[in-house]
Specification:
This protein is α+β, with helices and mostly antiparallel strands. The protein has five domains: about 5-225, Ribosomal Protein S5, domain 2; about 240-320, Orthogonal Bundle (Arc Repressor Mutant, subunit A); about 335-550, Ribosomal Protein S5, domain 2 (2-Layer Sandwich), CATH 3.30.230.70; about 565-625, K Homology domain, type 1 (Ribosomal Protein S8, Chain: A, domain 1, 2-Layer Sandwich), CATH 3.30.1370; about 635-710, OB fold (Dihydrolipoamide Acetyltransferase, E2P), CATH 2.40.50.140. Helix content is about 35%, strand content about 30%. It is built from 16 helices and 29 strands. Strands 8-7-9-10-21-20-18-19 form an eight-stranded antiparallel sheet, sandwiched between helices. Strands 1-2-3-4-6-5 form a six-stranded mixed sheet. Helix 1 (about 85-95) crosses helix 2 (about 125-140), helix 9 (about 410-420) crosses helix 10 (about 450-465) and helix 14 (about 585-595) runs antiparallel to helix 15. The longest helix is centred in the N-terminal third of the chain and has 29 residues, at about 195-225. The protein is elongated and about 125 Å long. The relative contact order is 0.08. One of its GO terms (biological process) is mRNA catabolic process. It holds the Pfam family PNPase. Its EC number is 2.7.7.8. It is found in: Cytoplasm. This is Polyribonucleotide nucleotidyltransferase.
Length: about 725
């Protein structure tokens, strides 16, 4: 296509779109730019793979350090595996796109967003989300769009659209809203404990801006004569569908109303229906029967239709009777159990949170400032993380077997959500200088493990003695929509997530919301439904919180005896080199003497960590004495380091030497220095003079016995 360039004036900031400039062989490509941040987004579809029964969508977000004028580190000097934040942005693009493709589409779709230039003002993520919609439309892929996304910030009492990094950092809200013409399709948020109504207003404010961007995409389509891709869905075998419904519907209904069945028993019963009632009936048919011919040509057809029938019946039961597969009411939370301190104190804090069959074991570790995660390998301004939340989802949690791999996108995403939920309640660094890591091990899964991680992690932090401002709980809300009938479900379990239309995770304290994440399987929700889901989550969160506080009401007053003890002090930044010493010799010596770990920040903040407080105090005293400014008349206990004919050199503080002239060694006349002192002797000395070059002149004369005794006790 010919090059097309258009600027959209959007909330006081221009968004510039260029089509036809780059990537002519991609199905669709757009360069989307705001200020100095520019992202190339491409969408390409190719012939589908044989035999797949899912939407083969792949979304990748790529960062290049040249975008910020930097050269990668490491031996190869090129980008390696994507940093965690790039993976999270890939998920951010994927989640609003996926429900807008027909679920029957089987051709491969790949979206690649590459940040080519980036300033420290405009984040590239929401640009990439909106750019993906334009690229998909240009590629002619069937799509229920257009779709767009914006970020909403809160500064004071004012919402702002697409805030800068600094505005997000200084504000109380970081909310991303994505939407289609049908409504909101995705929400991702971190908040500084904001009331539900403020969050609802922020989402509504963001969706209004999304509608403006959708309108701009329609204008571009009209200017370029483009249309959104359309395709006919594959025909369904109505005869086979009716046959399966006749054979299995009654049996499935009976299983779905056996509320006392466990998840495993229910799954087994449903599998048996498919394997016996349906397959036996098909086996009795003649080889020429159209139903048998259809199942032979497409072996997966029976399974897919059976799954569709189960989904239809489960949803119908909820819509018509208001009863879920485990017998709960729509707004009822599963039984909850909490335990803390399950592990020995070498694990600094531990907690087990159980909700129904979902079980999360969270373990907390306290570390020193040097344990903070360095974020220098990505493009974003934040340079380190002091709170880390990691989420693991092993196959045994689902009763399955599969090879263990490094954390996937889902694990990284769930860990980031739990991290975001707890960050607002962590104590300030000045009050609690520890780096904190929590690992949530999902040991049993039946829905809402990410919110289980929030609850378990809160309990583990309290067990570890982290003085969090308030405890945080979370609940996952679901949705069943059939025509105009809508039912919102509280605390969804696995089957309701799998066969439902929404997974809306809400986390917060009793004062407000700290994190949100909403994913859809339909093409959009009205704000009324979004608001109702947020409001319905509140009593569930408070109920869960009560159960948690009944287990541990407040953070423990004492840390584990195996947690490091931290002391902090300030030194003159010009003295950092003195403490470190040539080649790190001095700081290494202090570490070896005291068994402490020492971190020094650029501003002169020294953090000393040791398992025993007295060891940390010893290191602090050594550094204090090393960096303190000497004054004339002060008395010290020093050690003789060398002797010359006219006097002796004495180290009064680490790295600080002065000389005692032979005339100042004793009241009497001394013929040779060696008559009074030898190398290695401890001597009490007074600072007689500090000359204009900073040299110390010491004396042993004029020191009162009480002064000598006091200094020996101190040193």
């Amino acid at each position: 296509m010919q090059e097309f360039d258009k600027s959209i004036s959007f909330d006081g900031r221009d968004i510039r779109l260029k089509l036809g400039l780059l990537a002519p062989q991609a199905g669709g490509a757009v360069l989307i730019q705001s200020q100095d941040t520019a992202v190339l987004v491409t969408a390409t579809t190719t012939k589908g793979r044989e035999g797949i029964d899912f939407l083969p969508l792949t979304v990748d977000y790529e960062e290049r350090l040249y975008a910020a004028g930097r050269i990668p580190g490491g031996f190869l000097r090129r980008e390696g595996r994507p940093p965690e934040r790039a993976i999270l942005i890939s998920r951010l693009i994927d989640r609003p796109l996926r429900p807008l493709f027909p679920n029957w589409w089987r051709k491969d779709i790949q979206i690649i967003a590459t940040t080519l230039s980036m300033d420290e003002e405009v984040p590239p993520d929401v640009l990439a989300v909106t750019g993906s919609s334009i690229a998909v439309i240009q590629a002619g892929i069937p799509f229920y769009g257009p779709m767009a996304a914006v970020r909403v910030g809160l500064i004071g009492d004012d919402f702002i659209i697409n805030p800068t990094y600094r505005e997000v950092e200084n504000g109380d809200l970081d909310l991303v809203v994505a939407g289609s013409p049908d409504g909101v399709v995705m929400v991702e948020a971190g908040a500084n404990t904001l009331p539900e109504q403020d969050i609802i207003e922020a989402i509504d404010f963001g969706y209004e801006a999304v509608r403006d961007l959708i309108g701009a995409q329609y204008d571009i389509m009209e200017e370029l004569g483009m249309e959104i891709g359309k395709a006919e869905p594959p025909s369904t075998n109505e005869v086979l569908e009716k046959f399966i419904e006749k054979q299995a519907a009654d049996s499935i209904k009976k299983v779905l109303v056996q509320y006392d069945l466990s998840k495993a028993d229910r799954d087994t019963a449903l599998d048996n229906i498919k394997e016996t009632a349906i397959e036996e009936a098909i086996s009795e048919l003649s080889e020429e029967d159209p139903i048998k011919v259809a199942t032979t040509e497409d072996p997966k057809a029976v399974g897919n239709l059976y799954k569709g029938l189960t989904k239809k019946l489960m949803r119908s039961q909820i819509i018509s009777e208001g009863i879920r597969v485990d017998g709960r009411k729509l707004d009822e939370v599963r039984p909850i159990a909490c335990r803390v301190g399950l592990m020995p104190p070498r694990v600094h804090g531990s907690a087990l949170f159980t909700r129904g069959l979902t079980q999360v074991f969270s373990l907390a570790t306290l570390g020193t400032p040097g344990d903070a995660q360095d974020l220098g390998d990505d493009l974003h301004p934040e340079d380190e993380k002091r709170y880390l939340h990691h989420y693991n989802f092993p196959p045994f949690s689902m009763g399955e077997t599969k090879p263990l791999r490094s954390p996937g996108r889902r694990e990284i995403g769930h860990g980031a959500l739990a991290e975001r939920a707890i960050l607002p309640v962590l104590p300030p660094q000045e009050e609690f200088p520890y780096v904190v890591r929590v690992v949530s091990e999902v040991v049993s899964s039946n829905g809402s493990t990410s919110m289980g991680s929030v609850c378990g992690s809160t309990l583990a932090l309290m067990d570890a003695g982290v003085p969090i401002i308030k405890p945080v709980s979370g609940a996952a809300m679901g949705l069943i929509r059939e025509g105009k009938e809508v039912r919102i479900l509280t605390d969804i379990q696995g089957i309701e997530d799998f066969l439902g239309d929404m997974d809306f995770k809400v986390a917060g304290t009793d004062s407000g919301i700290t994190a949100l994440q909403m994913d859809m399987k339909i093409t959009g929700l009205t704000m009324d439904i979004v608001a109702k889901a947020i409001q319905q989550a509140l009593p569930a969160r408070l109920h869960i919180l009560d159960k948690m506080l009944a287990t541990i009401a407040q953070p423990r007053r004492d840390l584990s005896p195996f947690a490091p003890r931290l002391l902090t002090m300030k030194i003159d930044p010009e003295q950092i080199g003195l403490v470190i010493g040539p080649g790190g010799k001095t700081i290494k010596s202090i570490t070896e003497q005291t068994g402490s770990k020492i971190d020094i920040a650029d501003d002169g903040t020294v953090t000393i960590a040791a398992i025993q407080a007295r060891k940390a105090e010893k290191a602090r005293d050594l550094i204090f004495n090393m960096t303190r400014k000497l004054k004339e008349g002060e008395v010290y206990l020093g050690r003789v380091t060398r002797i010359i004919p006219i006097g002796a050199f004495v180290e009064v503080l680490p790295g600080k030497e002065g000389m005692i002239h032979i005339s100042q060694l004793a009241e009497r006349r001394v013929g040779k220095v060696e008559e009074e002192v030898a190398v290695g002797d401890e001597v009490v000395v007074k600072v007689r003079e500090i000359d204009n070059k900073g040299r110390l002149n010491l004396t042993r004369l004029g020191i009162h016995p009480d002064e000598a005794a006091a200094v020996r006790r101190t040193f």
